[in-house]
């Protein structure tokens, strides 16, 4: 995917230049940073943009060559924040809305994947927020889109509902294998879903590149009130002695809050705030924290507010720990140094689990 | 019901139905344009369209008469085509249509304004052209407003008098509708006959308005409100 565009807006001009190679892209930024406008340009719903947009090898916009493919011919699966289901149609009719004879359709797959069979005959007014989002997602997916455009699909949902809808998004990404562009202002969601990220601020690109790099440092400063978090994905294990462990890699696993309701082998993602991790230069014994991990300092980064983001590699997994400048000086922490991390199991917050509970 | 009365009622209902049919497409188009167009000139156009609601109907009739006169551009065109309008049943339909037009537009416009334009945007990303999206999303969501407008226009046309009497005259068996007949009977001193016709008018108007009420009130079924 290739973007090089300009769009004058009321308060600023949206200018985006980026090239993506992966099939899952997060677009981050505060509200009013131009995220939704960017989506609308991609969907062909916004007039006045100049430049070039190429998705999946197809030129959708090239003002120099007078190409501007109308929205109905772009094959963009647009999922707005508030679902926007057609109120006069049932869920099933909504899902089949974009299906045309002679063109590929993925209705059955979408209905199955998002577990919508029981809802097909219901009208949107009778559906919950999470159900509406799943129907909107299926409606977009059913047209076999070249790219799914998701505009904060979880923003209107409360935390419990988010946990229910997120696994479906992961399924769309991994099982339906539809490329997706995900607009959000939540660092955790972006991390859980995206391989590449674009950060917008006041209409200009603040950072673009692999999600790990971009979301680790640049995004944090721009998203007020968003704590830096370490996102860990793995499978759950229940040791015979009791408790729940998250196995991230062969060499790395950690205790998480006991979740006996999730069966052994469930895929899950957890968030650990960077402020909740203790760092020590010597071996840690006799601490109450249940997880003590040994790693190597990879780099130190300025994080603002007198703090420093310390990147630590633990068995091949990158962790970010927040330390004050004073602590870094006193412990004389430098790249290459061996350190120990103490993580309380209660600091591990479950973001989502793979067994899509309904 | 005697033969003369049956003919009168049928003619009146047919005129109202034809007038409504005549303005349905241009009225819905105007309503949609007014609901979506946010640019300059909107206020002027809206006011112009509303004028027949408040002008004396006889003034509207006079303007129509002038427009259709033999020495006007339109009149000459119609003359060469061999079409006669003034003082024919066509003039009755035309006068009722013009008087009913603003009612249709106002109600249909309110219906269109209730449709979220973003729903249309979604329909377009799902492969619908502008036209297709209008018929699959906008119209099905605004149909109650359109139907209410059409019923109001029909009801208005049933009772039209002032504009009609000027362009169509009051010719029994040719251009006379119920309301014109009531006037004629009172002029002739046939008060009992006039009262009888008024009673028939009440029944017709009640029927039309009752259907309008029922349609309007059912708004909200299936959560469309």
UniProtKB/TrEMBL annotation, chain A:
Gene3D superfamilies xrefs: 2.40.50.100, P-loop containing nucleotide triphosphate hydrolases
Enzyme class: hydrolase
Record-annotated Mop domain positions: 286-352
The ABC transporter domain, residue ranges: 5-227
Entry's Gene Ontology cellular component terms: membrane
Gene Ontology terms for molecular function: ABC-type transporter activity; ATP binding; ATP hydrolysis activity; molybdate ion transmembrane transporter activity
Sorted UniProt keywords: ATP-binding, Cell inner membrane, Cell membrane, Hydrolase, Membrane, Molybdenum, Nucleotide-binding, Translocase, Transport
Pfam families named among the record's database cross-references: ABC_tran, TOBE
Cited InterPro entries: AAA+_ATPase, ABC_transporter-like_ATP-bd, ABC_transporter-like_CS, Mo/tungstate-bd_C_term_dom, ModC_ABC_ATP-bd, Molybdenum_import_ModC, Mop_domain, P-loop_NTPase
The organism's place on the tree of life at top rank: Bacteria
EC identifiers of the protein: 3.6.3.29
Protein name in the entry: Molybdenum ABC transporter ATP-binding protein
Native organism: Corallococcus interemptor
From TrEMBL, chain B:
Entry-linked Pfam families: BPD_transp_1 (PF00528)
Membrane topology note: Multi-pass membrane protein
InterPro entries: MetI-like (IPR000515), MetI-like_sf (IPR035906), ModB_ABC (IPR011867)
Main location class: membrane
Residues of the ABC transmembrane type-1 domain: 9-215
GO molecular function: molybdate ion transmembrane transporter activity
Superkingdom in the source lineage: Bacteria
Keywords attached to this entry: Cell membrane, Membrane, Molybdenum, Transmembrane, Transmembrane helix, Transport
GO CC list: plasma membrane
Record's function text: Part of the binding-protein-dependent transport system for molybdenum; probably responsible for the translocation of the substrate across the membrane.
NCBIfam families listed in its UniProt record: modB_ABC
Family to which this protein belongs: Belongs to the binding-protein-dependent transport system permease family. CysTW subfamily.
Protein name: Molybdenum transport system permease
Gene name, Swiss-Prot/TrEMBL: modB
